[in-house]
Amino acid sequence: METPHPSPNAHNAGEAPRLSVTAPQGFRAAATAAGIKPSGKSDMALVVNDGPKDAAAAVFTRNRVKASPVKLSQAALADGALRAVLYNSGNANACNGAQGDADARESQALAAAALGVEPSEVAVCSTGLIGELLDMGKVRVGVEKLLPLLGDDEAQGEAAADAILTTDLVRKEAGYRGEGWTVGAMGKGVGMMAPSLATMLVCITTDAAATPQALDAALRKATKVTFDTVDIDGSTSTNDTVIVMANGASGVTPSQDELDRAIHAVCDSLARQMQADAEGVTKRVNITVTGTASDDDALNAARTLGRDSLFKCAMFGSDPNWGRTLAAVGMADAAMDPENIAVYFNGQPVCERSTGTPGARDVDLSGVDIDVRVDLGTGGPGTATVHTTDLSHDYVEINSAYSS
Amino acid sequence: METPHPSPNAHNAGEAPRLSVTAPQGFRAAATAAGIKPSGKSDMALVVNDGPKDAAAAVFTRNRVKASPVKLSQAALADGALRAVLYNSGNANACNGAQGDADARESQALAAAALGVEPSEVAVCSTGLIGELLDMGKVRVGVEKLLPLLGDDEAQGEAAADAILTTDLVRKEAGYRGEGWTVGAMGKGVGMMAPSLATMLVCITTDAAATPQALDAALRKATKVTFDTVDIDGSTSTNDTVIVMANGASGVTPSQDELDRAIHAVCDSLARQMQADAEGVTKRVNITVTGTASDDDALNAARTLGRDSLFKCAMFGSDPNWGRTLAAVGMADAAMDPENIAVYFNGQPVCERSTGTPGARDVDLSGVDIDVRVDLGTGGPGTATVHTTDLSHDYVEINSAYSS
């Protein structure tokens, strides 16, 4: 069967090149198998910024139930400075109460001591099962093993990108080359994925010089139209964290526009890789809504459609079921003209003035990519795009057996 | 495998008895196979109120995209009077534009002419595929066939209840016996089911005397806590319609309290039958949220959890995954104390103060009924219950192949 999973080495035209987090000057990384994952695969990673600058910014999950490492990293990022990020997969350290908070703090302190920096200069990110205590014996040994493995080779950046994966099938990296400066990035995320002004685990590094404020502006602008528009299953994680670190090692200070473009490029690339690798995915479904008074209305409608189980099952069945499309958007919190809705599948009109076109049921949706456009008929300029997937047997299989 | 599908003749203690729409005095029904369903099963039904009174009330879908029969029946019900309801299954007559509206009007006029009443005294309800024109040749013959079949036997009421089914596996009827008066009811609905102050197709008949205002009050009170709390897949249909007709043939005028209790009893019974027969269901999951400032907050949180695909997959896998429960409610539009959430599965505490209890993962969820209680920890008096199901392979199978 044809699948949308990208080859780890695929590089589409116009897409950000795959560059590891060690591609920019002055960043080192390492990964190890600390035994947190029962599979024995690598499950801890460390990304270190060797300076000279330590500017950083981040966005976090908006879920009210936040994992211990999220709360700790929010505090660490408050001053816009960071020297390192410690990652573990296999355990989210979420909903573990005071012990979870203490374990996150100890992880942070261990990494800081090993690197000779202050704990507040280290962020901690965890991903995996919710509600199991971290085995701190394994974390202590893991941090010890990571230190001598730190290096600035591409292989070490790739190893770090591998170590943060959970049910992901492929490594996710992206990059951007400016004039005299570079951005590298890694990410993970394939389920419990409906970032809400935040996202999954992502680490972006750059040797450009930039203030924390410039980084923050670029990051928020980029995540709004990239990670925030990926909606695999409507579920927002307790651990979403995107961090960007800039050390100025290149000596280049890009303009805000250049910085925005670079950060957008790597976020967009990682978001598309996450969509393509989503749990159980057999189709990539990109939904664009137009014809609304505001972009917010369009986004609400696109999200409502992208979360509709019946629509997603139809996509799995390659079924051009525009009736379910109308039924779904009809419940969106968006002004619309119910008698003047148009739907296009892969560019072909299947519904005009809220009524099916001749031949609508014959549109071929057998390919891996399905493009859905819905015009809500108010004549307004609003538009938004959401990236989702189908709802398949494999999604049910993966998620009915995950924790047991 | 044990399944939650009720036997058509099951009658649980405390549940409304199964009485067909012809159980009350002065109501006749009929059903026929008009050929609208490719299977050849019965697909048209007529329920007639022979008076003396013609009081009626109804609630309809809040979806902005409304089927032609919904718009027509809303107009017919405006004066609180109704003599008959014409049903068809196999075709929703939704999203068919002006032709759909004309076809609904012709169906209404055909039934009215056959019965010798005004078109405005007849409601029309359709259910089935969206976006295909009704075959009016078949509808015309169907109405002709229905007329001589009308009768007040239980068998005719049951035949009508069978004729409105689509992917439902079992007939759904309910009833209530007052002192000297009776309520009968039939319903259908197993997918595209998240009624929003409205519901699926339901017909309630009674020989009690009641004003349209009394019926309307009883119906709205009942649907709010019955059909509106069923949420199978978060999708709200274009065709939801619940109609109640009262003819006063018994000569009894129950108090508003008695009427409320009777209407609630039949709505509650039908809602539970719909949940038990939901598409692909292997588990009935009843979610109660407490500890919120308001009932609305509790309902928002219960709905958010009941619509979360990851939580529903865990239920399919009999997996006591309280972590996903917390992650889901953390995104609800409800005030909560994120550090003080408690979760109970089948009465057993699995999470207290937002942290797992010892043995939480060993709770047995292998049965058909799963009771989930979540306390959001604010100490407030708010509470609400939502009735949902698991997300199973069969749900995906049924809904990826439905229209093709």
Automatic annotation (TrEMBL), chains A, B:
UniProt keyword Cytoplasm, yes or no: yes
Active site: T199 (nucleophile)
SUPFAM superfamilies for this protein: DmpA/ArgJ-like (SSF56266)
Enzyme Commission designation: 2.3.1.35, 2.3.1.1
Keywords, sorted A to Z: Acyltransferase, Amino-acid biosynthesis, Arginine biosynthesis, Autocatalytic cleavage, Cytoplasm, Multifunctional enzyme, Transferase
Catalysed reaction equations from the record: N(2)-acetyl-L-ornithine + L-glutamate = N-acetyl-L-glutamate + L-ornithine; L-glutamate + acetyl-CoA = N-acetyl-L-glutamate + CoA + H(+)
HAMAP family reported in the protein's UniProt record: ArgJ
Function: Catalyzes two activities which are involved in the cyclic version of arginine biosynthesis: the synthesis of N-acetylglutamate from glutamate and acetyl-CoA as the acetyl donor, and of ornithine by transacetylation between N(2)-acetylornithine and glutamate.
Family statement: Belongs to the ArgJ family.
Cited PANTHER family: ARGININE BIOSYNTHESIS BIFUNCTIONAL PROTEIN ARGJ (PTHR23100), ARGININE BIOSYNTHESIS BIFUNCTIONAL PROTEIN ARGJ, MITOCHONDRIAL (PTHR23100:SF0)
Protein name per Swiss-Prot or TrEMBL: Arginine biosynthesis bifunctional protein ArgJ
Organism this protein belongs to: Corynebacterium hadale
Taxonomic classification: Bacteria, Bacillati, Actinomycetota, Actinomycetes, Mycobacteriales
